[in-house]
Design brief:
alpha+beta; 12-stranded antiparallel barrel; 17% helix
Length: 314
């Protein structure tokens, strides 16, 4: 913003000092063209996204963190996510994406019946706070985005189970695979992704693998419908979480999802240069694999909710 202000002042000074014998109409045209060029050349390296959502349950890797015996009516979960992205290339005067993007993300989760869920430690409704640092880079020759990062999990009512993990993942745009079928679009069809998470604290040595597919359909203006599917495999993850030492390698859970998003920026008459506002609803089914269900580690879960998001830049 400071850069743009100085540029505008410089242009104004040039316009004032321009030779008087030029026609005023020509001065206005020149000034407008110059300012427009500067506006187009300027690129902000930062992007921000904030989302607030309400969920029927909080399910993480197949585990329900918001269910207790005799709960009856569902007590809601409230979640707040924030994301700050910084394009390193733009920051140093290069083209967008040339040096990758640094992300600083946070996750906050509150549960209405925290005291009922954990009478001993449930002193506050704020159940979890996560901080994630991530670096992502788009590898254009193979149409993939590589991400590496670290996440710290903090449980305010249960500090003895705080933990952190490292992860690495790849998201692939598979549009090229379907050229033989006459598809000439830029968006992927199944958009496969694969991510590996490795815990190095509370569940030290536990590793979680995820493979997912998704596709965004746009049936009409401002509406996006995204079905998704994900299957997870675990190595010593559940056993380390519950204090066991067994060597486990097994399929953990399969999750089916459907997200319907509506861009309400125009509907709310939100200024276009202030970003975009979106409203979405979603539903998921977490299908526990046979071995994990038989051992009582996790069960099938059906859950969903609604979210309101604001995004700027990027």
């Amino acid at each position: 913003m400071r850069f743009k202000t100085w540029c505008m002042l410089a242009v104004l000074a040039i316009a004032i000092a321009w030779p008087v014998h030029f026609a005023s109409a020509q001065e206005e045209t020149t000034e407008t063209t110059t300012i427009t060029t500067i506006e187009e050349d300027y690129a902000c390296p930062a992007s921000v996204e904030i989302g607030f959502s309400v969920w029927s349950d909080y399910i993480f890797r197949g585990i329900n963190f918001s269910e207790y015996p005799g709960e009856g009516r569902e007590a809601f979960n409230y979640q707040l996510v924030t994301s700050l992205g910084l394009d390193i290339g733009v920051l140093f005067g290069e083209a967008a994406g040339t040096c990758g993007t640094l992300h600083i993300d946070s996750f906050w989760e509150w549960y209405e019946d925290q005291e009922q869920l954990d009478p001993v430690h449930g002193g506050q409704n704020l159940q979890e706070i996560d901080l994630t640092l991530k670096y992502s880079y788009n590898i254009e020759p193979i149409m993939s985005t590589l991400s590496v990062g670290w996440t710290h999990y903090k449980f305010p009512n249960h500090n003895d189970i705080n933990t952190h993990e490292w992860f690495i993942g790849v998201d692939h745009n598979d549009a090229w695979m379907w050229r033989w079928a006459g598809y000439d679009g830029d968006e992927g069809i199944f958009n496969p992704s694969f991510t590996v998470y490795h815990d190095v604290d509370f569940a030290a040595g536990g590793t979680w693998f995820e493979f997912g597919l998704s596709h965004a359909f746009i049936p009409c203006e401002n509406v996006t419908i995204t079905p998704s599917w994900m299957i997870a495999y675990e190595h010593n993850y559940y056993s380390r979480l519950i204090g066991g030492t067994d060597d486990t390698n097994r399929l953990a859970t399969m999750t089916w999802g459907l997200d319907v998003a509506y861009d309400i920026t125009e509907l709310m008459r939100f200024p276009s240069d202030w970003g975009t506002v979106g409203l979405s609803s979603f539903i998921y089914f977490s299908d526990a694999m046979s071995t994990t269900m038989e051992e009582g580690v996790i069960t099938d879960e059906l859950y969903g909710g609604m979210a309101l998001t604001w995004a700027y830049g990027g």
